[in-house]
């Protein structure tokens, strides 16, 4: 895989770091040791509310925007639109992206933890980078709200479709749960316990 600085070109091109409070990603964020790779899900109240699902792969956060957020019910297929890779330092970002700039709106860290690459256990093991390139990712999440296997599967592109549309699906394992709906029952940040509204209110006072 290309160096992180190459991969983050799009991230940098979309943002003016004089205007946004998001991390510029120029600091040296050390990739996690094997088996300690991070995942983070950020709830982002932008033009349309969505959940940014990010997996640490080779020193960057490979990212998808999930409008409805993750479900624990294996029957649900949640649209996940691939977005630009983010720097590792983004995993701790919570705050308000000001009006008039890319991604304007409030962000909280909705869930975080580590993950394991389940495709690495198959007969023909795939690295995370290979799985993403192939369009079929399977990970075991160890988060505060989410646990168990989740699959991300790239859909066949429609003509002239520029976005990469994927589906996020809870795998049918012992952590599947058809009743618990963490997106609605646990709306708060796992970093600070705040809701989107509370972060908004606090930042506008400051
Ligand atoms: Mn977003």
What would you note in describing this structure?
This protein is of the alpha+beta class and 206 residues long. The protein has helices at 4-7, 9-13, 128-134, 182-185, 196-205; strands spanning 38-45, 49-57, 60-66, 78-87, 95-97, 105-117, 136-143, 147-154, 165-170. An 8-stranded antiparallel barrel has the order 1-2-3-4-9-8-7-6. The radius of gyration is 17 Å and the shape is globular. The protein starts with a helix and ends with a helix. 33% of the residues are buried. The protein binds manganese (II) ion. Manganese (II) ion binds at residues 44, 46, 50, 52, 65, 103.
Residue ranges: pLDDT <50 for 5 or more in a row?
Answer: none
Overall outline: globular
User: What is Rg?
Assistant: 17 Å
The chain-level mean pLDDT equals 94
Output the helix-strand order: HHEEEEEEHEEEHH
Compact overview of the structure:
The chain is an alpha+beta fold. The chain is built from 5 helices and 9 strands. It is 15% helix and 35% strand.
